[in-house]
Amino acid sequence: MKTNEVTQILHFDEAILGALREDIPWEDVSANAVVPEGVKGTAELIAKADGVLAGLNVFERTFAFLDSASEVVFYKKEGEEVKKGELIATVTGDMRAILSGERTALNFLQRMSGIATYTRRAVKLLEGSKTKLVDTRKTTPLLRAFEKYAVKVGGAGNHRFNLSDGVLLKDNHIGAAGGVKQAIAAAKAYAPFVRKIEIEVETLEELKDALDAGADIVMLDNMPPETLKKALALAKGRAETEISGNVTEENIKVYASLGADYISSGALTHSAPILDVSLKHLKPLD
């Protein structure tokens, strides 16, 4: 198993346990009141809308923490499209555990699948262009690992994962440094030589300064299409280019037609609606 996969699992487990503790501080009064201890049962996971599945492993892991003998049988794969009414999986195990873990497991699966669904639609809008779609750090606190994973399931890429991951100089960094050229010079002096320097620019003048200072990547932020065309022409062959700023499903095709290397969109994680799924038909095993 790769190091990044181990790290991801640890992030997932920590967050799942935290979510379960939040929902079950000491006991599930409702489940314990109506179900005798030790009764095994089964339930069905059903799609209530069309979409792309992400987080099946998290769904399964949630029940495993409550009942190590639980079993989830999937009829759909991670990243697969599902239709409303289709059976996604069956869950078998201690009925108290199924009832207690239901909401937490569904919350993770719905959120992650919603992001994957939104991302898949956006990626399809970029078909035929050279531009790659990536996410941002506009994620739910403590759930970034889940949300960025879901973006990848949906077919897009990840921008930097955290502040330790790469150099990205934004407007406030530029203001603190005293200008675009000063910010880039300071970053080059401080960061290891293997790090690329990306900087956010909002005007063609800032872009020219960034290119002259040797920026590796320029983020063209909140520029109208006509300005973006001029900016991309200026940066061609001198730096990689990223279009950013209020990019959504509704306008992404216009931006993709301009030919930037990347488009980043916070909407992939902060604006994706959940994919509605439900755990139904819980019954005891004979």
Question: Overview of this structure, please?
Answer:
The protein has 286 residues and is an alpha/beta fold. The chain has helices at 3-23, 29-34, 56-66, 95-125, 144-153, 171-177, 180-190, 204-212, 225-235, 252-256, 267-270; strands at 40-47, 51-52, 71-74, 81-82, 87-94, 132-134, 167-169, 197-201, 217-221, 240-244, 262-264, 277-284. The strands form three sheets. It has a six-stranded parallel β-sheet. A four-stranded antiparallel β-sheet has the order 3-5-1-12, covered by helices on one side. The longest helix is centred in the middle third of the chain and has 31 residues, at 95-125. It is elongated. It starts with a helix and ends with a strand.
| Mean pLDDT across every amino acid position | 95
Structural class: alpha/beta
Order of helical and strand elements: HHEEHEEEHEHEHHEHEHEHEHE
Rg, alpha carbons: 23 Å
**Percentage of helical residues?**
40-55%
Unreliable residue stretches: none
Beta-strand share of residues: 15-25%
Oligomer: single chain
* Through-space gap between termini: 39 Å
How many beta strands in the DSSP annotation? Answer: 12
Shape: elongated
Outline the biggest β-sheet. Answer: 6 strands, parallel
Query: What strand line-up does the widest sheet have?
Result: 6-11-10-9-8-7
DSSP helical segment count: 11
